[in-house]
Amino acid sequence: MKKVVWSLLTAQEQEQCLARPVLRDDHELKHQVEKIINAVKTQGDAALKQLSQDFDKVQLDNITLAQSAFDSVQQLPIDARNAIDAAYQNIYTFHHAQLRSNLRIETLPGIVCEKVLRPIQKVGLYIPGGSAPLLSTVLMLGIPAQIAQCPVRVLCTPPNKNGGIDPHILYAAQKCGIKTIHPLGGAQAIAAMAFGTESVSKVDKLFGPGNAYVTKAKQMVAQDPNGASIDMPAGPSEVMVIADDAATPKFVAADLLSQAEHGPDSQVILVCLSAQFAEKVCSEIEQLLTILPRRDIAERSLTHSVIIIVEQLEEAVLISNRYAPEHLIIQTQDARALLPKIQCAGSVFLGPFAPESVGDYASGTNHVLPTYGYARNHSGLSLQDFMLQISVQELTKAGLQQLGPIVETLAQIEGLHAHALAVSVRLQEINNDR
After folding, report:
1. Which residue range forms the structural domain that includes residue 48?
2. Among the three residues 190, 211, 230, which one is the final residue of a domain in this structure?
3. Which of 46, 64, 180, 375 stands 20 to 30 A from 257 (CA)?
4. Catalytic residue numbers?
């Protein structure tokens, strides 16, 4: 990894040091995704079958997975089921604690204002397939949708070479009460859930990460008035580690590699206090790389990653807030002391025994997080993302008599005379009844 001393960099060099890998956003990608979306919109299931054959090399007889497919979960080893059960329980506990009560307050005598919570009626959950079954993402999306009691929960995930779904994903989905699963991947799955087909229900909101095609499809359907909203902007995975010289170099190296192995466009950054510690971490990285099956991917990620050497931890915090990392790991002697100063981060991991991996799988927090600097203005996925807050107001005659003249004045200032009139006719009726 490249090493730099922050204080020796110019303002422009500091900006370049924290620059993220350029996301693919070329005209050809947009054109291909647009073609896929249009095909699904106009041809429905027929397009989904053809696109699955083209991209996944799978002939789908059915767009919807038969309930009998869930029988395969009985083949799972007991340790796999126990691990999923434990992760489910922790994630459920943390998200259930996020449940809010309805809000009701009387702002003035006779004027009651409320916030009532309702689940989003139809949600679409996208689970990436690729080289491994991401059962953890099933839990991260399925559990809050289950707690929120969203009536319609549709899950799409790429099929395996036989057109089926990995039993680990099915077991996790079963735990979350998800019954409708479609073996569909890529932009075509996003289009199917956003617009609906003969077999796939149209949803109101889409959740889940994916590759460049999935990300572009989510962006495009969200811009279509007939499409669906999405959870948050997405980009390559990233981690920043803040470490002092008391940190364990091997721990830091392992944390950096845990994100580097996600993909060649992932980015990892270490902010530390000395060149000596940086060298120790680099040495550990070289040793750990030799045992990683995804070494090639991690090495490509490390080419656009960096170690930043600073003089004080306060400076490290400033850099972190400027970068706004998806994952922030703090391995210092008093990690919690830095937490109040952290303003922008997707998820924070405090201390030497809180690797980012626990948040990815089973600590209880959600691993669907804002990347690419969006942690400056977006939060990680939570229960509230699956719910709507509806405002309610109820006024008595006395309440309107007190508030009405204020509203009339404000409406007239804005030149919206019908707004004022809607109040005036009621006040006149009240006065006539006296």
Report:
1. 27-230
2. 230
3. 375
4. 326-327
